[in-house]
Amino acid sequence: MPSKLLSQAFRSHPFHHPHKNLDLNSIKELPDSHAWTSVRDEHHSVEGCNVELVPIIDLNNKNAMELIGHASKTWGIFQLVNHNISKSLLEDIELAGKRLFSLPMQQKFKAGRSPDGASGYGVARISSFFPKLMWSEGFTVIGSPLEHARQLWPQDFQNFCDIIEDYQKEMKKLAGKLMWLMLGSLGINEEDVKWADNNGEFEGGCAALQFNYYPACPDPERAMGLAPHTDSTILTILHQSNISGLQVLREGCGWVTVPPLPGALVIHVGDLLHILSNGLYTNVRHRAMVNRTQHRLSLAYLYGPPSTVKISPLPKLVDHFHPPLYRPITWSEYLGTKAKHFDKALKSVRLCVPRNGFIDTNDQNSVQVG
């Protein structure tokens, strides 16, 4: 089962919450445990920089493959419209998330994530790498949410489970389509990816749903919703509510806000796609900010390969002049590495460049690390 296989990645690196859990909705002053310093100034926007907007791509555009490839190389992120995910389903999943996080704290704790687990309610696992806590709550679903849903709503859990099942089904289809468009832009076809079946489906692929909730904050200038990081995925599909908060790090321009676009989904390139593309695609660094007056909700579909498949630069993208930049690694192994080393995880699987080869110095992505 994907839940069991992904959970194994964290067992050797359990996460222990360093502080007492607080009800962020009821706090009137920012506690020291959550007080960051100058979060708005880190990698601030460069003066005079002509900040472009994050690309918006219509999936029905005849040039969608090329546009997606270009955005994946230059930004590592884009907003997708006309993706065929119904508005009603997006509304339903958002309402389900709001219903979840509006529960009393003691009820949410009943579905708490264990220190060595991957599913359930809790704070972001990356919290252990930072001296201060983040102004957010999370709920992770891997496989069926039934066990935790029964803890949250003993008499009324089925509706939540049904919505999650429908959402996972639609996200899986979209993720598979997006992956082929991303790889197709690099000249990769089904024969080049051994873990796709004859129909081009990625059977056995693993995925997780991550609900993120950012309550209104009494001092947003000194608080961090979700600290800067890259995703340990092939790709991530993010549904963000109509409240702004997502920012991406753009080289030469600092942090750029990804404004909510009604009906759009935000697509992130993850670490594993960066590896598969041999550094051609950018694994985007991103963070979430908070605000003083509004609660914000987002939902990330984290898409990865079958847990036992070794991920490495695709052979078609490797030659004498472009040696493989990373050693083979499974997603489970990489998640364990990320749980231990965080931002240095990608660097830890980086290969030395052979003496008889060299990297194109124009390929700035080839030296990027997570």
UniProtKB/TrEMBL annotation:
Q: What InterPro entries is this protein classified in?
A: DIOX_N, IPNS-like_FE2OG_OXY, IPNS-like_sf, Iron_ascorbate_oxido_reductase, Oxoglu/Fe-dep_dioxygenase_dom
Enumerate the UniProt keywords alphabetically: Dioxygenase, Iron, Metal-binding, Oxidoreductase
An example of a Gene Ontology BP annotation on this entry? gibberellin biosynthetic process
* Enzyme nomenclature, EC number: 1.14.11.15
Domain Fe2OG dioxygenase, residue spans: 204-305
Question: In its keyword annotation, does this UniProt entry include Cytoplasm?
Answer: no
Its needed co-factors are: L-ascorbate
The protein's name in its UniProt record: gibberellin 3beta-dioxygenase
